[in-house]
């Protein structure tokens, strides 16, 4: 009988644990939804022309220097 009592206690603990996890699910979904909103805003900002402009300027400057150097050396 002691073995079956322990088994029932184990099942009861597992059931309570699963119930607690289910109760936490709505809060987890709300947090995930908020996080997705934040990530979308960050992605929108990262892909904007305003944030890409420094990359374009630096790339253009480096390209001009390399082009000038190659033209000077081989031209």
Outline the structure in words:
- This protein has helices at 2-46, 49-74.
- The chain is mostly helical and 75 residues long.
- The longest helix is centred in the N-terminal third of the chain and has 45 residues, at 2-46.
- It has one domain.
- The chain crosses the membrane at residues 56-74.
- Keywords: Membrane, Transmembrane, Transmembrane helix.
A few lines on this structure:
The protein has 75 residues and is an all-alpha fold. The chain has helices spanning 2-46, 49-74. The chain has two helices and no strands.
What's the layout of helices and strands?
Layout: H1 2-46, H2 49-74
Transmembrane segments: 56-74
Keywords: Membrane, Transmembrane, Transmembrane helix
Write out key terms for the chains shown.
75 residues; mainly alpha
Oligomer: single chain
* Biggest β-sheet strands, sense, barrel: none
Overall helicity: over 70%
Strand content: under 5%
Supply the number of structural domains.
1
Give the helix tally. Answer: 2
Which class best fits the helix and strand makeup?
mainly alpha
Uncertain runs with pLDDT below 50, 5 residues or more?
Answer: none
Radius of gyration: 30 Å
Element order: H for helix, E for strand: HH
Count of individual beta strands: 0
Shape: elongated
Mean residue pLDDT: 91
Distance between the termini: 96 Å
